[in-house]
TrEMBL record:
UniProt-listed PANTHER family: RNA EXONUCLEASE 5 (PTHR12801:SF82), RNA EXONUCLEASE REXO1 / RECO3 FAMILY MEMBER-RELATED (PTHR12801)
Record-level Gene Ontology MF annotations: exonuclease activity; RNA binding
Protein's organism: Halcyon senegalensis
Source organism, top-level taxon: Eukaryota
Tagged with keyword RNA-binding: yes
RRM domain mapped to chain residues: 471-545, 566-644
Protein name: REXO5 exonuclease
Keyword Oxidoreductase set for record: no
Length: 713
């Protein structure tokens, strides 16, 4: 949770899971920012990083995501304040890995704090003067007009020029206004297929200076396609079959979108403009901007990784994404302009490229060894390349990280508290020391004895059992000869059903239904209790067990959770409806921000429900009134406030499927009264939540605070 700064992130599905490296990206950018060449994280965006007063990471040892759900009601402050939550993928030696590999780091403790020396890779002053970037642009920062290509440079690099004999019939953008250093930048990229005519555009993407996609369109070539070049373009014959947009349509739209002083940015942009058959007078070409010796050029993929820390053009993807490439080129130009040639030269891109090639050679060597082949002697001498160390980066910039807690960190050189230190003592130290540090890691812990007395499997079983009860409803009584299909159809309108069984032990038959999402079960209780289904007036209720006595309280708290603010659940959709269909149907809803249509993780098919997130809670409330009873393509919709955020929704799915399809058939064992140790554990969790609340409230405005549940192992 940031105070005043905003962290935007996706709500549902895979986006709710982040890796250790992604967390590292976030911490590095938050602590260092652009002024120290740290790139924005690849998975989220921090606005106004230079306004951040500090970064505080609170690590809660021996606790995992499971504990958050088990003690949800006890974590009163945590769930009310921290609105962004993510599943962190497991990793060994968690805390040590958070700092990166501490290779070649010599450190010593002093009375004042931690001082370090490390071998850096920043070029010396004499080397910088010989750098092709410095030779071309000098060392001082300049405005964007200093980096636009001159007419001579455009001619030399085969750009379409107004009045040139080879550009007959080309469309001029008519952007003739004088460029200034505040002129707007636009990233442009195209994908081409080979046709009988030559290279023709099949996809065009245009992004603005904020990275927003203004145009991302498939284009039908005029001539017959000879080679779709799917490996690079990502275009297939099937994709182009329904397309009616032609090159002339794109030319018209680009002319309309671009203001008269627009500066186009791209990587080898000449080929894109040639394929578009368009002439634009002011361009920045990132393949020429990041200058190299002897006319060589860096690839966009390498620059994105080395300069921005972003992976693009991944091998797992089918072809390149032009919007991604346009955004990368734009951000590279922005980085160059903001940081200046000297800072870019200090990145030592040639050395990084050499290191990357050496790393590839090392990987190839390992692959050859596995196959039992002999390798050349030189490969055996290739040095192991270590990852950059986060703490090195902090200390080089003069920042002194603070680490408080009772967990030891081997060979880190960081001062530790006594292992017998209590959480209360750690809190007192944190309240005194955190304001003096720009980067702090505060470690709280449950008593390890509690972890031993509550094995993970036992705790997991209890949470799974309670979630199963919350997902399960009983409906009835029905007539002896009732139609089960009618029941399934009616209850299916509330959401996806996991299992459905008939209970015959009662005087009249009942049906036990287990849903896949909490919202569906709650919707069934709210809308079908007392309704007439399959010819009977029925009662709908959840299982009555000791653990379910606080179910209504839990449902209410989940509904009020800040993560679910402005989010509603909609059920009763036809499975044939696509995301595009729904976007069209719901386009009239005010302030709609995101639509998420869940898929079955095994079949990949869409579910009959979706989630809608609105920019304002009031807009979500208005949408609820509007949607309930609304008919879409013959289906009557039902909706309610969301209960389960993306990480919980995904976790429930995993819990259900680890057990196979037995979820609805779990027998509800007799629960005994809470043991003394479990009551004690609840009190400890409550106190821990209070410590986090106290520490959080003491932080300066504009502090990024992250709480980690790393788990036992």
């Amino acid at each position: 949770q940031e105070k005043s700064s905003r962290l935007s992130a996706a709500l549902f599905g895979e986006a709710c899971e982040i890796s250790r490296d992604q967390l590292y990206e976030l911490l590095k950018y938050a602590a260092l920012g652009k002024s120290h060449n740290a790139p924005q994280p690849s998975w989220c965006h921090i606005y106004h990083q230079n306004h951040l007063a500090g970064v505080v990471v609170i690590v809660v040892h021996e606790m995992s995501q499971l504990y958050f759900y088990k003690f949800y009601l006890q974590f009163k402050h945590l769930r009310k304040v921290f609105r962004h939550r993510f599943t962190l993928t497991p990793s060994t030696n968690f805390l040590a890995s958070l700092y990166g590999e501490r290779a070649n780091l010599k450190s010593q403790n002093t009375a004042q704090g931690l001082t370090t020396t490390s071998s850096g890779c920043v070029p010396k002053s004499a080397d910088l003067q010989r750098d092709p970037i410095i030779r071309k642009y000098g060392g001082k920062k300049k405005g964007l007009t200093s980096y636009t290509l001159t007419l001579e440079e455009q001619k030399k690099n085969d750009y379409p020029i107004k009045g040139s004999p080879g550009c007959k019939g080309y469309i001029y953008t008519e952007c003739d206004q004088q460029r200034t250093d505040s002129s707007p930048l636009f990233g442009l990229d195209c994908e081409m297929c080979l046709t009988a005519k030559g290279n023709e555009v099949t996809r065009v993407s245009l992004v603005d200076a904020q990275g927003q996609c203004l145009l991302n369109e498939l284009v039908k070539p005029e001539s017959t396609v000879v080679n779709y070049r799917t490996r690079f373009s990502g275009i297939t014959k099937k994709m182009l079959l329904p397309v009616k947009t032609r090159l002339s349509d794109i030319q018209t739209r680009l002319k309309k979108i671009l203001p008269h002083d627009a500066v186009l940015v791209g990587h080898s942009l000449n080929s894109d403009l040639q394929a578009l058959e368009m002439i634009h007078p002011s361009v920045i070409d990132t393949s020429l901007l990041f200058a190299r010796n002897e006319g060589r050029r860096f690839k966009l993929k390498f620059l994105a990784k080395a300069v921005l820390g972003k992976e693009i053009q991944c091998e797992q993807k089918l072809g390149h994404d032009p919007a991604e490439d346009a955004r990368a080129a734009l951000e590279l130009a922005q980085f160059f302009i903001e940081q200046g040639p000297a800072k870019v030269a200090e990145l030592n891109l040639e050395m990084l490229l050499t290191a990357e090639k050496l790393a590839e050679v090392s990987q190839n060597k390992a692959a050859l060894q596995q196959q039992g082949r002999r390798v050349q002697k030189q490969l055996n001498e290739t040095p192991r390349l270590s990852k950059p160390c986060f703490l090195d980066c902090l200390q080089v910039t003069g920042q002194k990280p603070l680490l408080l807690g009772r967990q030891e960190l081997d060979s880190s050189g960081l001062r530790q508290g006594n292992l017998s230190t209590s959480n209360k003592q750690i809190l007192q130290r944190a309240l005194e020391d955190v304001p003096l540090s720009t980067f702090s890691i505060i470690q709280f812990s449950l008593d390890p004895a509690h972890s031993a007395s509550h094995p993970l499997a036992e705790l997991c079983g209890k949470v799974r059992s309670k979630l199963t009860d919350m997902l399960t409803i009983y409906a009835g009584p029905f007539e002896e000869s009732f139609c089960l299909k009618s029941v399934e159809k009616e209850f299916g309108k509330c959401g996806p059903i996991q299992s459905l069984t008939v209970v015959t032990e009662t005087h009249q038959p009942y049906v036990c239904i287990q849903y896949e999402v909490l919202e569906a079960a709650q919707l069934a209780v709210e809308s079908l209790n007392g309704a007439e289904v399959a010819g009977s007036c029925i009662k709908v209720q959840r299982p009555v067990t000791a653990a379910m006595l606080d179910c209504d309280v839990l449902i209410k708290e989940l509904e009020l959770d800040v993560e679910n603010e402005g989010v509603i659940y909609v059920a009763g959709l036809k499975k044939s409806l696509t995301e595009t269909d729904l976007q069209e149907e719901f386009s009239q809803l005010k302030d709609l921000e995101t639509l998420f249509l869940p898929k079955d993780r095994q079949s990949g098919k869409h579910r009959n429900c979706c989630f809608l997130k609105f920019q304002k809670p009031q807009s979500a409330a208005d949408a609820l009134d509007f949607i309930n009873g609304w008919t879409v393509k013959g289906s009557k919709l039902r909706s309610r406030n969301a209960l389960a955020a993306g990480h919980l929704w995904r976790w429930i799915w995993l819990m259900n499927h680890r057990n196979g399809r037995q979820g609805g058939k779990i027998l509800h064992e007799k629960r005994e009264q809470l043991s003394d140790s479990e009551q004690d554990l609840r009190k400890k969790v409550k106190r821990l939540d209070h410590h986090i609340k106290k520490l959080y409230r003491s932080l300066q405005n504009n502090t990024l605070c992250i709480v980690l549940f790393p788990g036992v192992n």
